[in-house]
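pls read this stuff:
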Amino acid sequence: MINRAVITGRLTKDPDLRYTANGHAVASFTVAVNRTYTNADGEREADFINCVMWRKAAENFANFTHKGSLVGIDGRIQTRNYENDQGNRVFITEVLAENFSLLEPKSSNNQPANKEQRQPSNAQPSAKPTEWTTQGSESKQKTYEEVNGMNKNGTYENESTQQADITDDDLPF
């Protein structure tokens, strides 16, 4: 089964970076994505897609982006739910971002002054977008607790990637 979401758009506000009780960084943000068609008035409408990113990638994302930044997000769609104070079940659907790309050069005029001051004076805009990845991304579906770094026993797993054992004879070309 495939659960993949790839979106390109602009941030509606600065990412909200928080830390869990376990010390894991989590960034929440919304990406505005223009629709490909126009409405009856000839104007393009936009979808506002809620996203969440974890750990070091979340810290990097919060440090290098701001309201209006053009970003590419690669992740998966996640639905979770909880019971609110009134006893109603609330469902939340969001993109769990695993990778992101900065799609504008550092010298973009869209950058606020406080972010520009952090850049070294000799910084050159890169011709290739910058891409960041969460560490230990796995193809299996994880629960909300596992995404936060805990396994089903309530302990932390050592996230590492394993190399596949593939020979040239296994390749179809």
In short: The radius of gyration is 19 Å. Residues 112-128, 135-146, 150-162 have pLDDT under 50 and may be disordered. The longest strand covers residues 25-38.
